[in-house]
Amino acid sequence: MFLGTHTPKLDEKGRLILPAKYRDELAEGLVITRFQERCLAIWPVATFAELVQGVRGASSSQQVRDYQRMLASGASDETPDKQGRVTIPQHLRTYAGLERDCVVVGAINRVEIWDAAAWTAYEASKESAFADLDDEVFPGV
């Protein structure tokens, strides 16, 4: 389970140091791809495989095909180096607007990487509605 907020910086080679608390779960490999709200998502390989199974079994509607294409065409499988760094391919850095300052967010089953300014704006826009979401999204919880 991925939790917390971290603020690493991209180095000049487009590498990001993964937070230490995430490294064990991602050490054997990960998949990084574009995600909603123009952030990036990182999944352990096994978790991404489960996601793909669900997507693969969905109907073949235009929306499903579009989602499959966008998810898979941007994906890159990576293995962190011994220092816990992972290279973020240029096309993904461009997609998410990543230059130097990043925010890495634990999102339960995945890790999200945001441009720092984009995360600040997103968080500010969602904070006031957060308390109301639990009853709407997860009734009875």
TrEMBL record:
<protein>
    <recommendedName>
        <fullName>Transcriptional regulator MraZ</fullName>
    </recommendedName>
</protein>
<keyword id="KW-0804">Transcription</keyword>
<keyword id="KW-0963">Cytoplasm</keyword>
<dbReference type="GO" id="GO:0000976">
    <property type="term" value="F:transcription cis-regulatory region binding"/>
</dbReference>
<dbReference type="InterPro" id="IPR003444">
    <property type="entry name" value="MraZ"/>
</dbReference>
<keyword id="KW-0238">DNA-binding</keyword>
<dbReference type="InterPro" id="IPR035644">
    <property type="entry name" value="MraZ_C"/>
</dbReference>
<keyword id="KW-0805">Transcription regulation</keyword>
<dbReference type="InterPro" id="IPR037914">
    <property type="entry name" value="SpoVT-AbrB_sf"/>
</dbReference>
<dbReference type="InterPro" id="IPR035642">
    <property type="entry name" value="MraZ_N"/>
</dbReference>
<dbReference type="GO" id="GO:2000143">
    <property type="term" value="P:negative regulation of DNA-templated transcription initiation"/>
</dbReference>
<feature type="domain" description="SpoVT-AbrB">
    <location>
        <begin position="75"/>
        <end position="118"/>
    </location>
</feature>
<keyword id="KW-0677">Repeat</keyword>
<comment type="subunit">
    <text>Forms oligomers.</text>
</comment>
<feature type="domain" description="SpoVT-AbrB">
    <location>
        <begin position="5"/>
        <end position="47"/>
    </location>
</feature>
<dbReference type="GO" id="GO:0005737">
    <property type="term" value="C:cytoplasm"/>
</dbReference>
<dbReference type="GO" id="GO:0003700">
    <property type="term" value="F:DNA-binding transcription factor activity"/>
</dbReference>
<comment type="similarity">
    <text>Belongs to the MraZ family.</text>
</comment>
<dbReference type="InterPro" id="IPR038619">
    <property type="entry name" value="MraZ_sf"/>
</dbReference>
<dbReference type="Pfam" id="PF02381">
    <property type="entry name" value="MraZ"/>
</dbReference>
<dbReference type="InterPro" id="IPR020603">
    <property type="entry name" value="MraZ_dom"/>
</dbReference>
<dbReference type="InterPro" id="IPR007159">
    <property type="entry name" value="SpoVT-AbrB_dom"/>
</dbReference>
<dbReference type="GO" id="GO:0009295">
    <property type="term" value="C:nucleoid"/>
</dbReference>
